[in-house]
């Protein structure tokens, strides 16, 4: 098959924006600077974080490219790009977030394993493609199905890439069939990002986008779709991206005791300031993002300057643009909110805290200690930045 490259052949990587902060070179893992992240509601493709576990596949000969559909389905078949493009096209604005976002801050409490990320392993894009529910219907599986006649209850997505964690095999993940066949879940087989053909880094020619769910389930470079009785047994579903309490360590870990992480929790971060930032006395603008998983929108974002004793509400800066609206446009419940507040700084040091509340009244946890876990996933603790008055300006 064209495009397959060994798990350590990095000779043909695409070129990337030089402003990205590289957290790992091979595989390529990079995030934009904080301030660039919140300068637009829709994250430009070149600034969108890139999270990989192997070399980027090369898939050309697009007319020959197909996704095989196998497993517990009556008519195993092959899907070509033209089959997917013949279905109604949807543009879904959805925020993709890596479960490892903000891991670096978690590892400062106690060391964790995984690529270090600041607060920008997240981005908001307009994904264009066919709804998975329509694709499965085309293959004979009706909408809102939880089990196929042959007992398929999970849909597995297997990639073209090759990863060390899978012993040189492809990246893969699965979602439950009832989510896959629910048109309201907005799961897409996407071939566009922000109105352009998907680029190589983000899954060209076809990727899965599972809105509201950790990025790890949005498999890039699709090779096959399999109907399974059980969830995918791949590394990233079974030996990674699970939720463990702070008491579990590498000696007592029991992977089988936990479920794979799916929906991400409520999250926010201040992006106009670094963790420790020199400022002039007077007005300081606070800008950032807030998002929640599972289609739960953001209710509000609170800002504190006294360790959480009192709070003021931030305002929403950017409303969804009209840029990519098509005839099948969906709502923005999967997308982040950008917020802004102006504070007055007079003390020599001030800690500024942001915390978001989602539509189900879920709130970010106060301390990173209470959510610490050995893999360093889902650090959603209150985001804190320390402002110091710059002496040269006094
Ligand atoms: N085939 C494949 N799909 C993948 C990955 C990967 O390494 N290989 N990484 C996953 C993870 S962990 C995340 S967070 C998102 C990142 O998507 P992006 O690089 O488009 O931002 O892709 C997911 N899909
Ligand atoms: Mo991720």
TrEMBL record:
Residues 260-387 form the Moybdenum cofactor oxidoreductase dimerisation domain. Keywords: Metal-binding, Molybdenum, Oxidoreductase. It comes from the Eukaryota. InterPro entries: Ig_E-set, MoCF_OxRdtse_dimer, Mopterin_OxRdtase_euk, OxRdtase_Mopterin-bd_dom, OxRdtase_Mopterin-bd_sf. Pathway: Energy metabolism; sulfur metabolism; Sulfur metabolism. Residues 1-27 are annotated as: Disordered. Residues 53-235 form the Oxidoreductase molybdopterin-binding domain. GO terms for biological process: sulfur compound metabolic process. GO terms for cellular component: mitochondrion. It is an enzyme of class 1 (oxidoreductase). Its EC number is 1.8.3.1. Its cofactor is Mo-molybdopterin. GO terms for molecular function: heme binding; molybdenum ion binding; molybdopterin cofactor binding; sulfite oxidase activity. This is Sulfite oxidase. It comes from Brassica oleracea var. oleracea.
């Amino acid at each position: 098959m064209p495009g397959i490259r060994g798990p350590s052949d990095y000779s043909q990587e695409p070129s990337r924006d030089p402003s990205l902060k590289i957290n790992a070179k091979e595989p390529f893992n990079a995030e934009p600077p904080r301030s660039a992240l919140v300068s637009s509601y829709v994250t430009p493709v070149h600034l969108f974080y890139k999270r990989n576990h192997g070399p980027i596949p090369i898939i050309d000969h697009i007319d020959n490219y197909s996704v095989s559909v196998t497993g517990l389905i009556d008519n195993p078949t092959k899907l070509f790009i033209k089959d997917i493009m013949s279905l109604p096209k949807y543009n879904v604005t959805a925020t993709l977030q890596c479960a490892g976002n903000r891991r670096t801050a978690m590892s400062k409490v106690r060391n964790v394993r995984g690529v270090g990320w600041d607060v920008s392993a997240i981005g908001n894009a307009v994904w264009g493609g066919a709804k998975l529910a329509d694709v499965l219907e085309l293959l004979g599986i009706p909408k809102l199905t939880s089990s196929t006649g042959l007992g398929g209850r999970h849909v597995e997505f297997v990639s073209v890439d090759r990863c060390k964690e899978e012993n040189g095999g492809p990246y893969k993940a699965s979602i439950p069939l009832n989510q896959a066949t629910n048109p309201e879940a907005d799961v897409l087989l996407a071939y566009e990002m922000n109105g352009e053909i998907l680029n190589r880094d983000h899954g060209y020619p076809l990727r899965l986008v599972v809105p509201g769910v950790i990025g790890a389930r949005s498999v890039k470079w699709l090779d096959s779709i399999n109907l399974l009785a059980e969830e995918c047994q791949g590394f990233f579903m079974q030996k990674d991206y699970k939720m463990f309490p702070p008491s579990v360590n590498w000696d007592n870990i029991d992977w089988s005791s936990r479920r794979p992480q799916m929906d991400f929790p409520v999250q926010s971060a201040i992006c106009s300031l670094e963790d420790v930032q020199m400022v002039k006395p007077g007005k300081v603008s606070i800008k950032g993002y807030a998002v929640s998983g599972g289609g739960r929108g953001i209710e509000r974002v609170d800002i504190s300057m006294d360790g959480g004793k009192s709070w003021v509400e931030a305002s929403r800066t950017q409303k969804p643009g009209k840029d990519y609206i098509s005839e099948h446009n969906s709502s923005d419940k999967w997308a982040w909110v950008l917020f802004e507040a102006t504070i007055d700084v007079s003390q020599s040091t001030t800690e500024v805290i942001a915390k978001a509340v989602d539509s189900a009244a879920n709130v970010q946890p106060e301390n990173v200690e209470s959510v610490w876990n050995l893999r360093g996933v889902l650090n959603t603790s209150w985001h804190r930045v320390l402002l110091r008055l710059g002496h040269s300006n006094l």
